[in-house]
Amino acid sequence: MLEFGNIEEIYDDLSIDVNQAKREQEQWLKGDFTHKTRDFYNHEIHILEHNKYRKSDDYEKLTQYQAQVDAHIAEHSAFAQQLASAQAMAQSINNQPQSTQPPQIAIQGQ
Q1: Is the pLDDT of residue 101 over 80?
Q2: Using an 8 Å Cβ cutoff, are 53 and 59 in contact?
Q3: How many domains does the chain have?
Q4: Which domain holds residue 81?
Q5: pLDDT 10s digits, 31-77
């Protein structure tokens, strides 16, 4: 059973990520697209929040910047995909059956 402290920590972490995505969107309204997508961001949350934004009136008003918004979201998607691939690879390595026999050493000349 999860304790309330854990739930509060998760909520706080998600709030930080949501607020960060919203700050990016506020910059977009000013025509500022200098914000870089970083590897340590919660990309799933950013994608979710940015897709909500793309359904808003504000996004519709950004006609000259919509391609930049879309490219920014594509960056988050690429990071998320890289992370998912790395996690899948790590999981497949961890799930490989361990050999109970010692490794065989090849002897030259045989």
Answers
A1: no
A2: yes
A3: 1
A4: 29-87
A5: 999 999 999 999 999 999 999 999 999 999 999 999 999 999 999 99
Please report whether residue 4 resides in a domain: no
- Torsions phi, psi for 92 (to 5 deg): -65, -35
Q: Distance between CA atoms of 56 and 70, rounded to whole angstroms? A: 14
Distance between CA 45 and CA 86 in Å, rounded?
Answer: 19
Name the pTM for this structure. 0.75
* CA 87/CA 75 separation, integer angstroms: 18
Nearest to 87 by CA among 45, 50, 43: 43
- The answer to whether residue 93 is domain-embedded is no
Structure confidence at residue 100 (pLDDT)? 56
Q: Measuring CA to CA, how many Å separate 27 from each of 35, 36, 84, 98?
A: 8, 12, 29, 52
Q: Which amino acid is at 45?
A: I
Cβ atoms 24, 35 nearer than 8 A: yes
